[in-house]
Each structure stands twice: as C-alpha cells, then as structure tokens.
Batch of 4 targets.
Target 1
Amino acid sequence: MSTEIFDKKKTVDLRKKHIGPSCKVFFSHDPIKIVRAKGQYMYDERGERYLDCINNVAHVGHSHPDVVKAGAEQMELLNTNSRFLHDNLVLYAQRLQATLPDQLSVCYFVNSGSEANDLALRLARQYTGHKDIITLDNAYHGHVSSLIDISPYKFHQLSDAERNQSVHVAPSPDVYRGKYRADHPDPATAYADDVKDIIHKAHEKGGKIAAFIAESLQSCGGQVIPPVGYFQKVAKHVRQAGGVFIADEVQVGFGRVGTHFWAFQLQGEDFVPDIVTMGKPIGNGHPMSCVITTKEVAEAFMLSGMDYFNTFGGNPVSCAIGLAVLDVIEKEDLQDNALRVGGYLTKLLEEQKEKHPLVGDIRGHGLFVGAELVRDRVKLTPATAEAQEVIYKLKEQHVLLSADGPHRNVLKFKPPMCFTEEDADAVVEKIDRILTDLEKALGLNLPNTETLESKRKLPTDENGHNHHNGERRQRDPRQTKRLKT
C-alpha cells in the first residue's frame, strides 16, 4: 500500500520551498522517495525495493511488528512524563543496566543522541568542576552547539579563532591511515601518549580537563577501530588529570559489534567508562536515548541544586518501545547474527581486496564494517571519486550504501541487524562488478597505479554533513568529481 500523497516532483518542490536548504538529502541529483520499509528493505513510490546497508537506526529492522505493537498499545493506555511514577521507566532502566558493568547504574533518559552527549558534558563538568574537553579528530557527536564545538568532522572549516578554546583535538587512533599505523610496535600507547601531551599543554595554559569523549568506534570518521588498550591508557591519563571518560555508543551499541553488546567492551573487560551515551538503535527509529553513569557522577550532578527534567525523556511509550527492542534482539538472536553475518561480509570484502587494487583496507566488527578505497596502496591516496561512483552505481542497482570519512572514500556498512548472508552476497557481488568496470576503464592493474582524472561532477556529500579533506584544509577539486565509465 502506497502512502504517497504527492507525486515525487511535487514533494521535491515543496521540500525546496519549506525545508531549510542546509537539510540535505541522499543522492541530491536524483533523490529516492521512500514510502514504506520492512526489515532490511525500503520501498519507493513505484514499489521498487532497495536493500538498506546503512540504516543503523532501524536496528532490529524497519517497521518491526513487535516494536510497533508495543508503542501502539502503550500509547492507547498512557503517555505522560517521568514526574509521575510508572513501571515502564524503572523496568527499562533495570533491563538496560543489566547489559552494562555494575558501576554504570544510573540512567537519564532523553530524546536523541545529541541530547545524550550534551547532557554527558554537563555531568562531566559538574562532577569534575573542570571545563576542558578532549575529542578525537574527525569525530562527530551531534548537532547542538555544545557538540559542534567537540565535533571536528563539522568544525574543520572554522578558523582557530572561531573554535572553542577549551576543546582539544587528539589524533584519531587510525592504524591504517593515521599517525601511528599497524606496523608500529605499540600504537595504543603512542596514541594515548598524544592525549597525555594534550593534557600537559592544556594545564600549562591554565586549563583543566573535564572529559575525554570518543565514539567507541569512529563512524563518520571512517569506520575507525581503535587499537586494543587505547581506551584504558587514555582513561588513566584523563582520570589522573581529574577528568572522566565518556563513551559515545550512539551509533555502535546494542550488539552491533557481535562479540559484545557494547562496542567499548572490545577494549577488554578491564575498561569501564565513567559515562556512556546511547541513541539511534535504542528505539528502532523512535526518538529516545539515554545517558548512563556512576552513582558518584549522578550525585555530584544533583549537588548542583538544579533539578533535571525532560518532558519526553523516559515516557511510558518510549520505554515500552525500548523494552520491545531489547526483547527482539534477544528473541531473534540478533547479536549473534551480527557476529556471524558481519564476519561473512568482512570475509567477502577481504576477497575483494585481494582482487581489486582500489580496495585498500577492510576493517570492522560485526555489522559495523568499512571498506577504504585508495588510488595507491603505498601512498594511500584517497579514492574519493571512485567511492562516490560505487555508491551511485549501487543506488542504480537498488542497494543503499554511503561513503564517509575525512576523504569520503570509506564505504560504510551499518545495516539493520536482520541483514543476512544472502544480502551480503548480493551487495558484494554488485561491488565486485562495479570495481571491475571502474578499474578496466581507468587502466588499473597494479595496486600502486594512480587513477585517471574524473570527468563528471558529483555532489560532495551523500550523508547530509559537510566534509573537509583530511590532508587538510584545501579541498582537492578532483575529489568532488564522479568517474566516467
């Protein structure tokens, strides 16, 4: 059944008239109009089906009947704020906390990942009495003002004078393209020592560290997997400086990494953040999120004398939906599915790396996987135009995938958790053919061969965010072009 009210052209015209011009759409030259979705598939107004490889919001699958039913039934019964007692709130808090280390026991329910990260900064600053924040290069933590300040993914275009001087940027712990790579004897310590140096320099200028914040796995930064031990070492330096460690699980939590329920647990059982933020998958598309912290941090926040109240955070409908999501993850064994299917997808992509010189690196955990395309495997020249060509060609073949990272050359896989091995086969087979055609047209036979100049102009961004060349800040005009095949 179609839910289309206007034809596509009318929808586009009305959007241009009434929606802010900075609100971007995917595939802006020919956007897709989606009218319904189910599981790992989305359908346009003509009934054409698209395989969704990027929607980490519809965590247990689009329009999951158990989640829809839970929300509808609770909405019929009661929806109010958390200043009234209701069991859904405490039941959900109890269920959610049971997935985390015991120290993380106090919940604050809010409505989006941005709200969660903003509140986490408030908690950290109140608890420590300090102001300065350390963030990672290429990080993205949300769209509110406090988070733009700590999101280099967004603020790279600003001059030094325009940036918040209490925010310090540490190198992204990228062992493929970063400062310390896989051949380094101890990249975890080396990257953590950079954080230690930042703390020392901040202290010399009179600053005091309130928090270090990091996505447990960097997503917009290019599907970056920190070396094991990095978080422990950083946490030691930060805590010695009087700060706390905030783990941002907004994009990678709830079993997506397969081996663990939370991505920060990949660092080892001996690592426990002081604050964890979550959003996106928590409600399978319903606007809800949460901050979980220790009793000590929560009590310090209370001592500020300011009550915390959130009109919609923790309402009975949101909690019913959150409970349903947890039930589905368990009932359908989706964490194990992420481990099994994600491993299979990674294996298929590794085979493409052996076959295609454009594929420089495959990395990921579970159903969080990145394929970095490069023009030269030694120089690591970003294959930005080629990555854009891949996602456009896939779109033409009814597969939705995105490219991100500082160079927009990393193909990002973050599909709904019901993604199957058959889905993985289908998308990788298409990527194989697209890369084969690209490399043939470009005369690419050896891993170190540079590609030809691209011919057709592409939109610079298919993810709705501003990107800036990580080499930095002058954009290479070749990287905004689409290859002609």
Target 2
Amino acid sequence: MQEYIIRVQRGVSAENSWQIVRRYSDFDLLNNSLQISTLSLPLPPKKLIGNMEREFIAERQKGLQAYLDVITTHHILSNCELVKKFLDPNSYSVNYTEIALQHVSMFFRSEPKWEVVEPLKDIGWRIRKKYFLMKIKNQPKERLMLSWADLGPDKYLSDKDLQYAVKLLSSCSHPYIYKITFATANESSALVIRPFSEKGTLKDLIYKVRSAPPPPCKLLDLENSLLGLPSFYRSYFSQFRKINTLEGVDVHCFGHLLYEMTYGRPPDTIPVDSFPPAPSVFVVSVLESILTCEAMKNGMPTVSRLLQMPLFSDVLLTNSEKPQFKIPTKLKEALKTSKECTEKRLTEEQKLIHQHRRLTRAQSHHGSEEEKKKRKILARKKSKRSAYESGEEHSAKYSNSNNSEGEMGCHPCSGTTLKENRIWTLKSNSLSNRKEGFPIEEYC
C-alpha cells in the first residue's frame, strides 16, 4: 500500500513543522467528509489497476499536492476541525465537547440552579469554543445558550482583572448588544450564558439556513476580545502592516461581513480587485474603502470616517433603551494596557510575515530558471577568463625560459576542462515500497 509523507508547517517559522504519513484512502475519507461544503475539490480519482506504477504514483503525488493546496488556502476549510485533525493529529486528537462539558460541570458545582440540556454541535467555527443548550431548574421552559472557551493568545489581563471584567458583562445594557444573563471566568477558561435565539443568527439568514424574517441585528460574543481569542479573519489582516490597530482590525472584519451581507458569500480573495453589481453604489463605496488593494496600502478608514459615508450618514438610530455599562477606572487602565499588548503582538507578527515574504521572493528569484542560466553563463565566462589568463601566464614563462636558456623546449599540450557544480534536487518518483514526500504550505 502506497504511503505519502506530508511536511506541514504552521506560520513562517520552519521550526514549527512536522511530518505525517497518509494513504490515498485517508485523503478519500477526508474528501467525503468535506462534501457537505458543496465545494468542488480536486481530489485525484481512484484507480484499481496499475495504481502502483511509477508514473501513476508521480502523477497522483502532484494531484494530492494540488488538493492540499486548495483546502489549506481556503479560509473556511483551513479552519475546519476535520482538516486540522488530518494535518495535525497530535494537537487535535481530543474530544473538545467532552472537555468543555467537564469544565462547565466544575463551574456549576457551586451554582446548582443551572442544568445542561444538550450540546449544540452546529454552532460556531472555533474548535475550542463549545455551545450548550441550558435551562434554569425552577424555570424549565426558558431556553438559554451557554458558550465555553479556553483563553486565547491575546489574553493580557491578569486573572483577577479578567474575572472581574467578565462578570461585568451581565450588567451591560445596549440596544444593539445581545443581553448576557450570566458570565464567569477562571485562570484558564470562561463561560457566558445568554437567551437562546430561536431565529438563529445573521449568518443563518445570509446563507438561507433559516427562512425567518430578518430581525434587528445585535452583537454576540462580546467576551471574545477579553478572553484573548483571535479573529476569524486574522490570517487576512496579519498580511497587511497598515492594519495595526484594533479599530483597524474591527473595520476590516466589518468589511468582510458587509461583503457577505451584500453578495451572500465571502470574497474569493483579499484584496478584492473588482466588485459584482450591488443593490447600492453606496455599499460598494464602503467596500472599496476597506477591501481593495489601495485600502490595504493606505490603512483602514476610522469608524468616524465610515459614519460620514453616504451609506450611513442618513441613518437615524432610534431606540428607547439607553446604553449602560460602567467600568471602574482601574479596569479601564488594565484594558488599555491589554489593547496595547494585543496591537504589539499583531505588529510583531506582521513584521515576521513581511520578512518571510521578502526572503521567499529572494529565494524564488535566485532559484528561477532564468537566474540559473545567468549564473551558468557567468560561470563559463569566469572559467574561460581564468583559463585564458592561466594560458597567458604559462606562455610568458615558456618564452622567458627559451630566451634565457637558448634552447627549443617541448611545447606542452594544454587544455581547460570546465566542470560545473550542479545542485540536483531529486523528487522521488517512488518505487512501490518507497514513501512519497511533498511539502504543504502553512495553514492556520
């Protein structure tokens, strides 16, 4: 049975890489599981006869590489738990729902009024953030939703400040923020309870999962930034050094949301070169200010600047509910410091990515066929010049010898042989008992 060695690298550091071994049947199983996405994925077809021939294996190797290139560069698929388990089984081998349930049970040992009804497996994209249907024991008809998550890499608040900030969330009252019933945190994770929305979310409406009439939009998961959880779009804005503030990040993420609301699907690439026809030219103007190449070079517009654009300038927000959220001065200072640390980490990451890109471009240019030809020509010229200079030197010595000795010497048979030093990169075309190897670019 033919096996393939896959080298996987996370991020720009070659040290953060590993190898896994997979068979074609493993690829086939993954592909069948990903069919729910309705995407056309280029998995090479099966072949029952002649599937151990050298030429066929070499061709299949190229096809499997192309398949992995597609799923690791597709933003949604690359964040899918199935893909992560396939490429990094050691890091994603546990049952995260079971782990979340254990932590939730520990939280509620001192809060006996809550009861977990069942896991909500089809909600959310974060692998380490899980959702459960909840109820209060003395109010069994009221349906609530609990979210539990590990703390993320941008958690810079002290444990004490974090626990205090999370508990404050339930006191937040705002017409456009979804109400939080209960929230608590410890040194490693946090949970938040909200009323369960029977109508689903805005994304459900965009992708026609539900047919309910559009409700007023309210912001969910306000706790994510406190917990240090990375943005879904981080792999996009980390590529652009002008998006280096949390306000810029929020505006960029809003651009993605507005694009999905407008066209019913995410953009194919970022930056966006051109926009399909839209119901309003004002919408396109906002998208152009956020998602185009020019916007990435100049930086994101501020929230104030967005509100002055025609799409928003004539909107009147009227609501009887007055926003209320009081934050103590000491916690405000801690949040400000946390914000600065988050922006610093983003800037450092962008710097590493920029350096890696420059190095990759230089290596690619140096290894191009055109550059190889130039180096060969220069090597030949240098060798010929050295040979010519060596011949002239030898002739001078021979002439001087004749003049001094007054005798006819034996003229040497001289010649120059140019031996090129070549670096051969060998790709195994594989015998039936040899493992194949091919590299995989970084994935998130």
Target 3
Amino acid sequence: MKILFLIAFIHLLLQCTGKPLSRDDCHQQPLEEIKREIAGYSDIVKAIINLAVYGDAQNRSYERLARFVDTIGHRLSGSRNLELAIKYMFNALQEDGLENVNLEPVKVPHWERGEESALMLAPRNYSIAILGLGSSIATPPEGITAEVLVVTSFDELHKRAQDAKGKIVVYNQPFVGYGETVKYRSQGAVEAGKVGAVASLIRSITPFSINSPHTGWQNYQSDVPKIPTACISVEDAEMMARISSRGTRIVVTLKMGAKTYSYSVSYNTVAEIVGSKYPEQVVLVSGHLDSWDVGQGAMDDGGGAFISWEALSLIKDLGLRPKRTLRLVLWTAEEQGGVGAEQYYQLHKVNISNFDIVMESDAGTFMPMGLGFTGSCKARAILKEIMQLLQPINVTNIYEEGSETDTDYWVRDGVPGASLHDDISKYFWFHHTQGDTMTVQNPSEMNLCAAVWTVVSYIIADMEEMLPR
C-alpha cells in the first residue's frame, strides 16, 4: 500500500512540472497572470508584423508559392507530380535552415481520371463540361448512352425511383452552403445506384460559375452497384433542368476513362524549430501539400501550406527559439479524406499529452479575420488575449470550430485546435477547379495571414504553460 501511495505521489508531482501527463494540469497560472505574460510579447509581435508585412519577408510566402506551383503544377494523391512536390519541399526546407527536416511515409490512394467527355445528343448536340469525381469507375470504352432524369434532391430521386432505372441521374440541387450541399458530390453516385441509375452527373458544389465544373472525392458503398460519376457546371445543370421541365427528352453519351491503382507510397513532410525548454512539447502548424489534378492547387492548399512554412521562417529569421518545439507538417492525401493525417495521428498519438495545439490553414489565405478555435473556455480566453496583440493589423476575432480535416483526429481527443478564418466569399468559386491558380492569390493578404499564423503559434509555443485542456 505504501508503494502504491508513493507511486501516486510521484505521478502527481510530475504533473506539476510543466510537462503534463494528462489533459488536466494540477497547477495552472491564474488568468490574470497569464494575461500579463501575454502582454509581454508585444514587442515580438510588432517585430513579426514588421518583418512579414512591411520588411524583408514581405511577399515571400507568395513568391515561394508561385515558384512552387509554376514549377510543379497540380499534385494529385499517388501522382508523379506529388512525388516531385514532396522532394521540392524537402530540399527547400533544408535550404531554409529548419531543423529535423524529414519525410514520414504514408500509403495513399492512387486514382487517375483519364480522358472523359459528355455529349448531349438530344434535343441537340452539345458538349457538356465535366470533371470526373475521385474514385469513380470508368464507363465502358464505348461510353454510356442513356436518357437523363433531372432531380433537385435525394428525396425527389427516391420518390421517382421507378423513373431513374437505366437513366443518367442529373442532380440540380441548390447551393445552400458547402457543408450541406457537398453530400450530393460525396453520396450522389450511391443514391443513384440504389435506384438503378447507370451514371450520375452532379451540379458542382459552388454558388458561382463561369461554366466551370468542380471535382472532389466521392464514396461508394460495398452493397450498392458502382456507377460512373462526374460533376458538371451550374449552367449545364440548370439548362438540363429547364429542358426537362418542358417535358423534352434529354439523351447523353458519357465517356470516362478513370482508373484506380494499388495504394502508393507518399510522405508527410515535416520540419521543426526545436524548443529551448520543453522540446518534447509540440505546437503543430500545417497545411496540405496535395491538391486535385486541375489548376495549380495554389489556393487549396498551397497558400495554407506556405504560410505555415513562413511561420517557421519568420521565427528563425528573427533569431527566436520558443520554449516548445514548433513543428511544420505538410500533409499528403488530404483530398482523399485526410489519409496522411490519419496515419500521422496513429503514429504519434502515444505522445498526445505533449501536443499543445494543432493548427491547420485549409480554407484559403485571403484577407484574414481571425482564428477558428476549439478548446476549453480558459484556452479560448488565453487565445483571445493573444489575438488582441494583432490589433495593428486589425485581426483580432475568435470564431467557433478550430479543426480542419487533417487536425480533427487530435481535436476530437481534446487537443486544442485552431484554423485560419479569412474572407472565403469567393473561395468556393475556384475550389477544385481549373481556376485554382496563382491568379487567385494576393501577396498582401498572404503577408497578413502569415503574420497571424506566426504570432499565434510562437506565443503559444513560448508561454510557460501549455494551453489548458
């Protein structure tokens, strides 16, 4: 009994050393004391802002990103381009003088769209712009020629199940928000397959279009027949809806040469600034390096990846070394559902108590407005104080929801999470399209995003205590 008591006492003592063994510290600074500590970073914040926004590092993240995407292009999971991108970044991070630059292997999906086309044969000849959806099967070489059934919802589809058999289902669902509407992209083929359709064409998940189809990942179910599936533009979905509403028959020939290969080996790309006092504790900043096979992947998620790199560069350039390790992770295969991040989590979750906060930027790097945050009330109060130091660039707001696809594994287990909250009013105009190029990016806005990302990650990494769980 005495031995058990002694072990419990030692365990309790260790929890009070600044190296927590669990989510709850037995000793935490009073909030007022933490506020005074944060206020002491004012000069460092000014130095970060001056360097990133006005100084020698002005436009650096933009220029680095432009060079990268102009050299490599898009970077689909399993592709040669993604391999080249990872090698490029591995060398670039080493040349930048960052520490512990390494590649952590990951098995990733490998799907290729091949040649694809859709031709309306009746009531007139017309070429429909399409982008096949990730993991879609191919059509037969001669294609699929069938009549079209246009619906506006899954409910309407199932009410008209008898009409759908043997047809190409066209979804003309309204855009009510990405989170709600994206289910038509991810589940459209399955729901159409349930009622005997031979293919599905889905109105792109966007509020605005210039005849631009949007791609993305979709999911089959093992107990439902697999059918080919692609996205079409808003304009073509609405046109076919109008034609159908007049009682006119529509016939389409769909050809898709998609192929799914065995899983490939890819890598999460990692670099660090090692902490000076608690090197085993980690503040993680991240973005994903992969993209879709259209455009340049500059917005999704080149910008997020490169402001995360920039955060470490700015801290290094200022000669700063936080108490905790600042770790950059450039995820692989995010677009296929966070594949690289899930494997990273499985590998590193044994040390979950040492992860202070996980941060990912994956919703554009437009004009920043603040941070999304998920965590305890006290952690939110601490972050709010940190954000007040960003008043010189007028980015001080805290919003709900701080997890992204790649960090959600950690946030669900109680690790505080932060995401960049910026003006995404035009984000879904270009999302997963040929339009995702450097033309979308704005160097001044990237400077501001990099400043926000750097200030928050550095202060959290350098504070005496970890954020409370």
Target 4
Amino acid sequence: MATRAQSGPLSQAGSAGVAVLATGGVASGPGPGRPGALQDETLGVATVPSQWRAVQGIRGETKSCQTASIATANASAQGRSHVDAQVQTEAPVPVSVQPLSRYDVPRLAAFLRRVEAMVIRELNKNWQSHAFDGFEVNWTEQQQMVSCLYTLGYPPAQAQGLHVTGISWNSTGSVVACAYGRLDHGDWSTLKSFVCAWNLDRRGLSPRQPSAVVEVPSAVLCLAFHPTQPSHVAGGVVARARAQPPLPGAERGHRREGAALARRRGGPAAAHGGLRPGHAATATEHQAKEEGGFPLKCSLAAGEAALTRMPSSVPLRAPAQFTFSPHGGPVYSVSCSPFHRNLFLSAGTDGHVHLYSMLQAPPLTSLQLSLKYLFAVRWSPVRPLVFAAASGEGDVLLFDLQKSSQKPTVLIKQTQDESPVYCLEFNSQQTQLLAAGDAQGTVKVWQLSTEFVEQGPREAEDLDRLAAEVAT
C-alpha cells in the first residue's frame, strides 16, 4: 500500500503556513483560504515478480552408492623340511715360481746399481737420526702404578717392639727373609730376636705367619741369602757383652766404635794388592768422631797388618786402601752399580745420598733426600740410572736419574706414623718387586711400575757419561 500526501498551494499559505508547519499543524485550524491538515490516502498495491529468482532457483539431486561386500577367510599352514649338504675343498695347488731365466736379470741389476747410492744415503740419515730415541715396541701390558702386594710381619717379634733391620731375596726370587733386631738404645746382647722367611709363591700365604722362623739369642742386624743356594741364609748378630748404640743421640760421654764393612761383587779378590776389574770392594765406616763418616775402598788381598788394641790368634790385615770424602754423619749403606765398575752410592744420617767414582775422593753428585736419616740405598739390578733409598721419615724414595737428578721420581709412604724405614732390597729375578722393612716390624713388598724395570735405549751410555765426570 502507498500513501500520498494532499496539500494546498504553498503560495496561499504565506508566513502563516510556515508557522503551521513549525507547530505541526496544531496552532490553528482550517479556515477560509487556508489549506487543511495533511491526510493519508491508500492506493492499490503493485507487485513485480523477480525473473532472476526464477532462473536461479535451487536445484537438488540425491544419489547413493554401496561398495561390494568384503570377504574374509582364515587359513593356516605348517611345513617342515630338512636339507643336508656337504662341501669338500680340493687340495691347494702350489703356487708355481717362475724360473729365474724368465726374469730380466740385466734390467734388475741396472736398477739396483742406479738406486744403491740413494738407498745407502737415506739409511745413513735414518741411522744418525734421534727422532725415535726412547721409543720401544712393547706388547706387554704396562703397569703404571706402584702398589703394595704384601704386608708381612711376625707378631711375636712385633710384640717385643723389634725392628726389621735387614731384608734379602733368595736366588730364585720367590722367598723374602727379614732380620729382627733393634737399631736404637738397648742391651742387644741379651735381646732375643728372629729371622723370618715367607715363600710368596706358596698357596695360602699367610702374611702374619712366616714359612720359616729361626729364633736367635741376640739382635740380628743384617742378613743375606746365598747367591746360588736358595735355602742358605747368613745373618750378622751382636756377639759382644755390651754394645753401644750406633745411632746419634747416645750420651756424649760414650765414644763411637769404628767399624769398616767391606762389600764385594763376584768371586775372590786377585792375588795382588789391588782390585780385579768387576770385583770392586766398597766400605762404610762409622767414624770415631762425631762430625762424619768416611766410605773406604778396601781389598781382601791386603798385605799390611792391621793395628789392633787387643791380641788376636788370627792375623788381621788392614784392608782400607783409599778414603773418600765424608758424609756429614755416619754412613749406613753403600751399593755398587751392577752396570759400572767404578760407581757406587752411599747413604748416611745426614740425609744425603752420594754418588762416588772409584777414581776420585769427592762425590760426583750429592742429593739431599731427607731431613732425617737415610738408612739404606740400593741400586736397581735392571735399570742403570735407577736407585731406591729408605728414609727416617717413613718413606721409600725411587730415583730415576734419566728423568731428574735432583728430586725423586716416586715417593712411597711405607709408614703412616713416619717411623723409620731401615732396609730395602730389589728382587733381581722378579724385577718388579721391591721389599722394605721398617721400625714397626713390618715388611712391605711393593710392585713397581713398568718404567722402573724397562731399560731405556741409551741409558747405559748416559751412565758412562756420568762416570766420566771425574774432577780434574
């Protein structure tokens, strides 16, 4: 439905018509010459159908499909079969070697003549090179640590407070023996002591129960196995009625007793008064004075009579032939080099190890290894530049002069309370073993690392150069 508004001419309304419009036709009613109010008029409805909707009407179509049915089935099968086969190889055919006549001998000879000088030149260069010095092919497993294999002791001796005063390995290297005694104050002549031995190869080894025990009526200060008889051992005991203590610290009123101990390598000495090569004798002396001790070179073939205060039924000879420069205190140990006839080591209560040459009195070198005493020093039986020392601070010191000439390569703590280590000995058969005895009455067997038992390529030459450093 449409509505159309009816109105009179606006020109007749004038300003009054404007006012009526402003007031919404309420202020004044119709009058003569004045149009009436706006009125609605209803007209007919006109419709126009949409052609676009007829053309774009919605079309729809429904379809459906069904897949073929799925067929399922269960089936099982089992089979078993065996196959046997054999293979036989044929006998190998020997490789035929061409006869010499088939090779070009003249050309081969010409080639060898042409390269001979060059090959020899290169071989000489390689021979003079030091690029591979110290290198050795070793297929065995390297032992890098120093470890304690056994801690041995004899409880009855330890209960008396006895010290291990000497150690020795037998000729097979399987048995270690120790001497029990005292190295401090005490009446040594009445002190009961022991010599004990342990067979390390025996099954069921008991570290606290020796394989053999020998009871001795007085203190044993040293012992040594026979060099070839594995069951024979000799010991040194105190035989006098009253012994003076050999260590510093005794009463000032007592005079120290001098004693020279000769040590040799090999068989009997030569008939002449000198020393046969390879059989040099060394000695240590506990000096009668307080200030030091002198190593002595001795000969068992000495002809000069010894000066003695007491008569003797056996003629005594004076073996000392040469005196070396002294230590700052008594000398307790010497060790001859197994690799050089003129070199030996000495250790004393001044804490020093001296390396001497038989050809001069002053030492070639002096090493301070301890602030206390050094009771033992031993040269390695397999390494020319290796030795070990036992200190009064409870240490075993291993020196390798090829690595350092001033400080030990390895320091082994033998005793935790710093009680002294009195003796030590390398095993010449089982070269990785080192035995050391201490003031606690204990023997410890140490397994050395590989570096201490395998000789370097030029080690013997280095030892020769060290021995050649004789003072002029």
